[in-house]
Amino acid sequence: SPFFDDNNHQLESEIASIAAYGITQGCTITNFCPDKPVTRAEMAAFLTRALELPFISTSSPFFDDNNHQLESEIASIAAYGITQGCTITNFCPDKPVTRAEMAAFLTRGL
Fold it and tell me: How many Cα atoms within 13 Å fall on the side-chain side of residue 8?
């Protein structure tokens, strides 16, 4: 595993796998933060990388993610119908993803 903070974690091999496939870069260069919740923006990045969605260079249809470092990933999952946002005009990029929301995102993506 490329991360120091997941040693002996019960899901260490899964964390190493998504790192090897380029799906995650961790929360820092050396840490994954395995017990930290995932934000909606981070989820967008994971799905964009995992599903190999094309990079969207235009801004997303949401107002609350302007200039967010993951705005392109948010735009990608919006363009492919994986998300409609938390409201019609907002994505809520820093809000944690619930397990039910993750199920919906994965279902739409797959």
Answer: 0
DSSP β-bridge partners for residue 39? 96
Q: Which residues of the chain are modeled with pLDDT < 50?
A: none
| Integer Cα distance of 43 and 109 in angstroms | 12
pLDDT at residue 58, rounded to an integer: 78
Distances (CA, A) of 48 to 8, 10, 26: 28, 25, 15
Write down the pLDDT at residue 15.
96
Three-class HEC string of 10-29: CCHHHHHHHHHCCCCCCCCC
- Helix residue spans in 1-110 (DSSP H): 12-20, 40-50, 71-79, 99-109
Distance CA 59, CA 74 (A): 9
Stated pTM of the model: 0.91
Residue located via tokens 């380029």 = 22
The predicted structure's pLDDT at residue 20: 96
